[in-house]
Design goal:
Elements lengths: L2 H22 L5 H15 L7 H18 L10 H19 L1
Length: about 100
């Protein structure tokens, strides 16, 4: 097996692992959850008194509250995993912006 074949195999395996996460953002409410998560993460990033886990938990609760206010049911319309993945994506985006 040559180098190119090995790279294709590795990239294929990585893509197969990432595909379920990518698909979640293209669900009916994926963009809404991601936008809310980004908004909340940007606000919480300003608070230096909280640990990362406290910020994550607070972000989860705030995003959940905002979704419920919009009539979107957690566990029915969106999963907890989608919320957590959106928070992680927003945090990663923020880290990239700070570089």
């Amino acid at each position: 097996m040559n180098f190119l074949s090995k790279m294709k195999l590795v990239m294929s395996a990585i893509f197969n692992q990432l595909l379920p996460y990518i698909k979640t953002f293209f669900t009916r409410y994926g963009a809404v959850v991601l936008a809310l998560a980004t908004e909340v993460v940007m606000e919480l990033a300003k608070d230096n008194d909280m640990s990362w886990s406290e910020k994550r938990d607070t972000a989860f609760n705030q995003v959940g509250d905002k979704l419920v206010q919009q009539g979107i049911a957690i566990g029915v319309d969106v999963s907890k995993t989608l919320i957590l993945n959106s928070i992680q994506a927003a945090a990663s985006k923020l880290q990239e912006m700070e570089k």
